[in-house]
Amino acid sequence: MEVQTLKPEGRPPFETSLFLKIYLYGYLNGIRSSRKLEKECIRNIEMQWLCHSLVPNYHSIADFRKDNPDALRKTFKLFLLFLKDAELVSGETIAIDGTKIRANNSKKNNYNPKKIERHLAYISRQTEQYIAELEQNDQSDRQAEIKQIQEKINRLQAGKLKYEALASQIEKTGATQVSTTDTDARSLLIHGQVVEVAYNIQTAVDSKHSLVVATHTINQNDRNALSGIATEAKENLQLENTTILADKGYHNARQLSECKEAGITTIVAQQETVNSNAHGTTEAYLVTQFTYNQETDTYTCPQGETLSTKGRWHNKARDYTPYKFKKYRTSACKNCLVKHLCTGRQKGVGK
C-alpha cells in the first residue's frame, strides 16, 4: 500500500489499514459499492467495531481501490501463502473454469471491421439517394424539402466520420473489434450460438478445500486462457509444479504447450472430433482413423492410399478463435470402391 505522510496543515489522513479492513469486509460480504460501504460504516455494528467508529467518505474508499491494485493483488498472494502454511491448500491439483459476465456495453455499440463496412455502405447508398432527391427539389425550388434533406445528409456524414474513426482505431491497435462504452469488453460466445458483449472471469480453485488461488478477468474465450490462469495459480502458491484440470473449452495445443514448458501438468478434456467430411462418412473412415507420417507430411487412409498436401496453410475461425490448417488429398478417391463410406464429396477426400 502507499505510505502516507502527515502534512503540516489540514486534518490528518485515515490510516491505510482502515481502508484495507473496509475493502476486505466488502469482499467477504459481497458489497462492491463504495457508497454502500460508507453506509455500513455508519449503521453496521461490526463495521463500527472494525473501523473504531471512523467513517471515511465513499470517494476515499473508491480511490483506495483504484490507486492500489498491485498492492491488493500482493495482499491476496500473501493470504494464499498463509493458507498454504496452514495446510489449507495443497497446490497439487487445481481446477480452472471461466464465467462470462455481461458488460454494460450493448451489442449495438460493439463493432468489428465487417459491421463497420456494412454501416459505411449503408451511409453511401443513403447519401446518393438523398443527393438525387436534393437535385429534384432544387429544380422544383422546394426550400423546406431541401433543408430537411440537407440535414439528413449532414447526419449521415457525421456517422461516416464516426465509423471511419472506429475503423482506424481497429487498424492501429490490431484488435478484431472495439466497444465504445466498455472499451475493454468484447463480443464473446456465451452458450451455443448466443453471443454477448462480456468479460470472462477466470478462476483457479485448489482441490483440497475448494479455495480460490488465482483469478483474473480477460476479454476472450476460454480457448486462449489456460496458460495465463494456470501460471498465475502456480506463481501465487510458489509451486515448482502442479496439475491443472479444465474442461474441453480450454483444449488448445499452444496453451497446453506453454503449460508444459512452465512445469504444469494439464488434464484437459479433449475437443470432440469434428470430421470435415461429415456427409456420408462412417465411423471407420473418420479423421482419427487416418495415420499421419511426420517425415513426409502425409496421411494414410484405412484403404492404404496416401494423401499429400501442397503445403499451403488456410485460415479458419471457429468459436471466434482463428486457426490454421492444411488440406490433404489423393486422386485415388475417384476410383475407390468404398468412397461412399468415406465422403460425400464428388472430387474425393479432403482431410
SSE blueprint and pairings:
Elements: H1 16-28, H2 34-43, H3 45-50, H4 58-67, H5 69-85, E1 93-102, E2 110-111, H6 113-140, H7 143-173, E3 178-179, E4 186-191, E5 194-206, E6 212-218, H8 226-236, E7 242-246, H9 253-261, E8 264-268, E9 291-293, E10 298-300, E11 306-307, E12 314-318, E13 321-325, H10 339-342
Parallel strand pairs: 1-7, 7-8
Antiparallel strand pairs: 1-5, 2-3, 4-5, 5-6, 9-10, 10-11, 12-13
What's the short version?
The protein has about 350 residues and is of the alpha+beta class. It has helices at about 15-30, 35-45, 45-50, 60-65, 70-85, 115-140, 145-175, 225-235, 255-260, 340; strands at about 95-100, 110, 180, 185-190, 195-205, 210-220, 240-245, 265-270, 290-295, 300, 305, 315-320, 320-325.
What does this structure look like?
The chain is α+β, with helices and mostly antiparallel strands. It has ten helices and 13 strands. The strands form four sheets. Strands 1, 4, 5, 6, 7 and 8 form a six-stranded mixed beta sheet that branches. The chain has a three-stranded antiparallel beta sheet with strand order 9-10-11, with no helix packed on it. A two-stranded antiparallel ribbon has the order 2-3. Strand 10 (298-300) and strand 11 (306-307) form a beta hairpin. Helix 2 crosses helix 4 (58-67). The longest helix is centred in the middle third of the chain and has 31 residues, at 143-173. The protein starts with 15 loop residues before the first helix and ends in a 9-residue tail after the last helix.
